[in-house]
Amino acid sequence: MKKTVILFGLLATAGFIRAQQPLYKNAKAPIEARINDLLKRMTPEEKAGQLNQLNGGIFTGPAANDPGQQAKIYMTRQGKVGSFLNVTGAEETRAMQKVAVEESRLGIPLLFAFDVIHGYKTIFPIPLAEACSWDVTQIEKDASIAAKEAAAAGLHWVFSPMCDISNDPRWGRVMEGAGEDPYYGSVVAAARVKGLQGNLNDAAHVMACVKHFAAYGAVQGGREYNTVDVSRVALWNKYLPPYYAGVKAGAATVMNAFNIVDGVPASGNKYLVHDILEKKWGFKGFVVSDWNSFDEMITHGYAANRKDAAYKALAAGSMMDMESKVVVDYLPQLLKEGKITMQQVDDDVRRVLYYKFKLGLFDNPYKFSDVAREKATEFTAAHRMEARKAADASIVLLKNENNVLPIDAKSNTAIALIGYYAKSKADMFDFWIANGKAEDAVSVLEGMKEKFANSNITYSDGYLPDGSSNDALIDNAVATAKNANVVIVNIGLTGKLAGEDRSLANPAISEGQVALLKALHATGKSIVALVSAGRPLVLTAIQPYVNAIVYTWILGTETGHAVADVVSGDYNPSGKTVMSFPYAVGQIPVYYDHFNTGRPLPDSGDLNWKSRYRDIPNEPLYPFGFGLSYTTFHYGNLQLSSASMKKGSPLQVKVELTNTGSKPGYEVAQLYIRQMTASIVQPVKALKAFQRVYLQPGEKKVLSFTITDNDLAFYDGEGNVHIEPGAFKVFVGGNSRDVLEKDFTLQ
After folding, report:
1. Residue 710 Ramachandran class (φ > 0 left, ψ -120 to 50 alpha, else beta)
2. Which residue among 7, 35, 449, 576 is the one 20 to 30 A from 216 at the CA level?
3. Could you write out the DSSP letters of every residue in 514-578?
4. What's the pTM value of the predicted model, to 2 decimals?
5. Active centre residues (catalytic)
6. What is the pLDDT of residues 563-588, one digit of tens each?
């Protein structure tokens, strides 16, 4: 009897404990109910903490005893930190998560975020290069692998994709985007968000962050952190579409831009954050500042002080404060003064908490911090194979005079490989390589020697790490070239000049490298230029001295293998440019989807009093969508299902594509539209569709495209959609310049 009483008492106590468990800790309760329960329990200081993101560091070992790290640990215990960036690795994230979950009053887990731009440990091509593949399936797969590796390292959130459209290769951050076209940028943005996030219901995907909202790619002069001044028509039609596509693909977060729009910093811009993002687009995730951008509104001349900066950011609809600490310092005071309401604060905090619940962190806070899974997941052979495939497809063949390429890897060919970057692994990587390591990569020299094992490859530096050269280096390179059948020269820019704060006034081939090419050309040998860079460079100066130009961008871990694949022809190059290549620096910005002026330059006849340069062409050196192959493709028999189109009744477009060469290969067929007359002037061409098609030699395919009302729509300055009847042209071809065209009307 006594045992029965004791047992009953224990059961009753256990039931009482369960009954008293806070609802927010009940894994079976709906997320919204759990959030509501938690919000009721939180103090204003703890709510401010959820909107505070700090730069992390090391939280294990002796480094954790640093006073700065101890201060962050203390703030976490007090519930004054909701997220850390730059804390990576399963061991580190677990250590800090333990403080938040087991040592703070409410045990709210942290979010760990990191700049994973094109891979975490396995480094893929830079996003700009990857976009040149036009392989949307591979782009999404690359993002999913980056997410898988990042998640295995304890991360929940990555600051990508960058959705900024830019026409300016002077801007170092063009390497993070998908180029100059809003339609294609939208397709790529959606693919990257889907690849990163999946359904956010496992430990193999992470939250995506659409950035930088908005129009950061339009910084004046291509100078980082500079002013943006664009019309609202340009904002809606050119710059906003990729952000919108990322949001509609389900992006959990959006990041403020550093720049102003309409004279107001993006972080405090109510029109951008509240009116467009939240109200017009229905965004339900949360908005995070860029590094210190709330505080920088003071420097802009928009906020009077730190308290005012916190108020203006929150009032605009921005939420999480990255590193400036103005929200955690002043939100409670702003609440007391009635400048912001508790309802507004709760809405902001609710959005952050939702994703912590969605990721399962309240029920299993260490699910992402698994050391064994981290070791088993990162830098696997399968991931490297995908990185190689992505790098193969990202390379763009710009010139191939007399078919100097490909070079048969099975033949015994004497090859001179020249160029410091060909052997330097450190210069193969850009600013954003997450936790990738240069020593893990395959250099061009290594890749070529492996591929051309039967050939005699001799190497010479040719120039110094900064791109300059001298007589001794050039003489040595010439001596090396004289004993070769073909000369391959790796030129361009170090990857250290790609990324944030890497703006260049003159993105061109250096004088030292041009001098090197001149001397090598004088040997009479065939010259192949491999151009490495994180942006389109001005290549006009090298044109007379090279027979082939292979644009290799910054390709990541598998650089050497991919370059050798293309040079040997084991992979037939299929990449197409997503930014126009300028003829001269003074021509920048140059882009395909420009507007006609009242005095456009005619193809022939009187050229005076027209919009033109007198010393260079108006056109870029290489247009948007351009890229050669080792085979040839012919477009023919462009047909429309009707010469007129009614709203709601799609128009069918068909074209015959034939591989007229001797090798199988991919072609990217591109469809453009022009509206001849409209209430708002339209571009001379606008990309609306594309197909990446594989054809055997002699094979012909009829490609079909469908033009809908949406393809003919445009925005006015307030984001209202217009579809106007009138005359249109449709263009189909292998790039934006070389196209077939037909006319039709919209009734």
Report:
1. alpha
2. 576
3. HHHHHHHHTTT-EEEEEEE-SS--B-GGGGGG-SEEEE-----TTHHHHHHHHHHTSS------S
4. 0.96
5. 290
6. 999 999 999 999 999 999 999 999 99
